[in-house]
## 1
Amino acid sequence: MQGKDRLRDILRRIDGRGYKAYKDIEGSFDFGEYILLIDHVQGDPFAAPSRLRVKVPQRIAGYPADTYTEGSRRIALGDYLTRVFWEKCGRYCRGIRGTGKSGLVDIDHPGQEILERTSVMVDDTWVEARFFVGLPAAGRRVLSREANQIFFGEIPQVVKDSLLFSRNPRDELYHHIRSAQDQDLLRKKLDELGLVAFLANGSILPRASGVDDRPLTKGKVVAFCSPLSLKIEVQLPYRRKVEGMGIPKGVTLIVGGGYHGKSTLLNAIQLGVYNHIPGDGRELVVTDPRAAKIRAEDGRRVEKVNISPFINNLPFGKKTDRFSSDDASGSTSQAANIMEALELGATLLLIDEDTSATNFMIRDHRMQELVVKAKEPITPFIDKVGQLFSERGVSTILVLGGSGDYFDVAHKVVMMENYLPRDATQKAKEIASKYRAERKKEGGNTFGQVGQRVPLPDSINPSRGRREVKVDVKGLKHILFGRSLIDLSSLEQLVDQSQTMAIAASILYCRNRLMDGKRSLGEILRLMEREINENGLDSLSPRHLGNYARPRMLEVGGAINRLRTLAIK
Ligand code: ADP
Ligand code: MG
């Protein structure tokens, strides 16, 4: 390690030289209160900004052990400090000055969820922050004066004002980490309570807009309130007594008139697999972590998935126990999405009529009369949802305003009325016995097989042009993997672009280290998850990247399954 004056000397020496001269500052420098590591210097002012880290020794940072020695707290502390660091960059850094990204100082920017990240990590010895700097240039010439200002003026201020325990508002910091810990505990309790989801009274479910995930504040906002019959009380270490609606395992139907808040409720449930920041409104909305949102996704690629529980006897004898398509239909894609989720261990399916294929969901009596079963390949979900639970223990929450036939198979019916839930189970059952559904049950007496598929590593090719590995993340929902574009738009539980970054790295990790032509996809993902649990997200890359956030294995598998070149043994 070199002294910080050494950095000053180098900068003085390279002033006005070509941009490549910046390479000389790669290395580590002792700033007394912290170490500055310049890991990677960008090739030119327009390229992705340079990657830096600071490491503050705990003896200076001063975090009490109870802020980071337990998993939930450690993750929440990293999240909190990332937010503070980001905010202070905005306050102390002058921003763009010069060509391209010159002068930018930036760190990963978390949204409403609290995710495990590599941006700020805390342990017994260090507080480490990883961030990005656009090394300043005029044209393509080094601007040492501006660089000096960043390294010796701005960064020290940001570090001092964000990473030291004593500089942070103690109550707010503890509130952040304790409420995250409560959420994790509550989520863990679901199973023993026999629930798949819990929504605390007082929660705010609607969002500001379709593109703004912050809570709705405009107009009249109705806070969540459980009907008495579904009300559950839980004790949490921090929040103490919490009341709310428990959704039991089994088949739950969410019904109600259009615009009464059904999808809003389901959307909150599907993101209840993550912790949320204080003030989000969904801090105490928690869901089975293995919940999978399922939707129709016509046009997607499907590779050798056994969709026979739902689809059989396709025209011209096309097989469905190893069904492949480069352009799946609404119903086959929805069937494949379910079967893939089951293969990866999903224990709760979340389905919304708004994004489902109608012919996949229901086939009523009259249609059964007109189109005889022998001519209809699809066994609708209504005939399988009960078996999924009784045979495989997989629950379903279903938003459906359009078909009362489902009353027969639902264990609970929740009716949304003016944004508030009511327990309509009794009423629905009465109606179901008064007006018999005339439809015949289809699809046999058991659910059918869920396959375990073995991916072939050679079919996953990250090369493009002369580069052996060229993988780029394009926004939240696209990965350009080698020459193929993976479209993740239908993975609605993917919430952060840094998760997408980690997914891209995960695909490479799986291909290079775990896929051997023998292991199943489920097994591969379990092994990778174990590795991340033990050694953190850095297992995915040796490069100390600051923009990984933890994805669920359901989304990693979802991305692999959508890779258009994927071949299954
Ligand atoms: P549905 O799926 O029943 O048709 P949505 O869930 O799409 O209805 O909700 C319709 C509209 O009502 C949305 O714009 C949503 O933001 C708003 N909304 C939902 N829940 C609430 C609530 N609790 N308070 C205020 N507005 C809400
Ligand atoms: Mg809706």
## 2
Amino acid sequence: MILVTGGAGYIGSHTLLSLADAGYESVTLDNLCYGHRAAVLKGHFVHADLADETALSHLFETFPIEAVIHFAAFCYVGESMEAPEKYFSNNLVNGLNLLNAMLNFGVDKIIFSSSCAVYGDPFEIPIPESHVKSPINPYGLSKHFFEEILASYEVAHGIKHVSLRYFNAAGADPQGRIGESHEPETHLIPLVLQTALGLRPEIQIFGTDYSTADGTCIRDYIHVCDLANAHVSALSYLLSGGQSTSLNLGTGKGHTVREVFEHCQQICQLPIPYREVGPRPGDPPELVASGDKAEEILNWSPHYTLTEIISTAWNWHQNQKF
Ligand code: UFG
């Protein structure tokens, strides 16, 4: 049985489907502060908060947990600049509760949701995992610190980990069962598609003077189902005795904001009002993963193209269930 914290969230809920397809049983722990109960289509569900140590112990007593996939965290970069305490309390202190419960119950394998935000403003593209970690916001710091905490827990207690550093997660389940539903929504692709549907008056393009081909930021967009499958590969790797490691999950291909916008227009075939505005503070000009290490260690590589990412997202937003 695999414990999935934050399994009602965007990446967590898609990972539950991949786990079930691979034959794993799961139990989700989620406080539903951002997640959706309707997104949990597989496995058991426990409505609880990682701050609640009693609930956590009860869960470990009830289910024979073999390994943990830890998604539960706050993930808004902008909010983390205004309320760092919120990010350090939830992403670090509550994460420690989870690690301590694992110690108490003899569970020694964890897959951690990390982020390309650990690299800050990179000086090398594509970014290798060995790149210096210098986060530029408390969200990225919380992910970097938790990776370091995992390293200390391995030395002291033998807990093995795989930290997965996601680049820009996007897209939705190709069968349309689940998809991205953040409140508030801050990510580019859902905002563009919601604008196409008339749910928003316009999309703002943040910054057109970056030193990129068309002046807008470059990101490495990766399909959420590719991310989900990488978690299953990382789990099999740890369960078969793999060593602790940190891996980028991206496609190795960057797309500018304008390219993404144009792809969306082609797929939607609808007018999408937009406005060019100044840059969003804290946005690095370019983030693109080197995916060599994940391919080598997990034998994993992404399959979905940007067009497929946007098409599956478009299908979801037109028929959104939650
Ligand atoms: N963008 C716009 N307009 C919008 C929203 C976004 O132009 O309304 C641009 C951003 O400036 C950026 C790109 O679209 O250049 C992608 O922005 P997202 O908000 O979709 O994603 P980010 O790259 O900011 O964030 C991602 C992850 C975070 C992670 C971060 C690391 O979602 O969890 O990368 O920098 F922390």
